[in-house]
Task: structure prediction
Amino acid sequence: EYKGIEHVNAAYQQGKSVVLAGGHCCNWEWAALGMGRNMDGLSIIIYKTLSNTHMDQWMRASRGRAENTALYPMEKTFPALKMLSEAGQRTGVILGADQSPSNPRSAHWVRFFGQETACLPGPDLIARQFDAPVFFFDIERVRRGYYVLTYTPLCTTPAATAGGEITQMFM
Result:
């Protein structure tokens, strides 16, 4: 079940792309694969390329089977989004934004539970560069095999925010 999808589709109707930021909880793989079915734009799943070529190909095949969804490796995110934007394609960039960055120098540092915490800058950077509203997605397990995915507007005016501000909102 999808709740709040009307907020996401309203942004698409205004000609905007969106950023969908959530965490790696419940069945997040299912959520990412199912999001494209109900959205009026193309779902973009950003992934980190695996060092094991065989496993990387298997993961891409597994994640690439979803309808209305495209996969892009992390290192090709900005060129791909720029190309899609210039072509007039509205996108929903899906990011599991709760991970720790591998390079603390490029991280956004925020206060989280009273301590400085390094966070991935992707949702913030993408939202501000493409003026894409940000939605938090939450996954709740109702019972085995049944989930509710809820979209909540997090930042509707990303171009008006300072660097790191969206990251702090997410955290």
Q: What stands out?
A: The beta strands are 2-3, 18-22, 42-47, 69-73, 91-96, 108-112, 115-119, 134-143, 146-155. The CA atoms of residues 24 and 96 lie 6 Å apart.
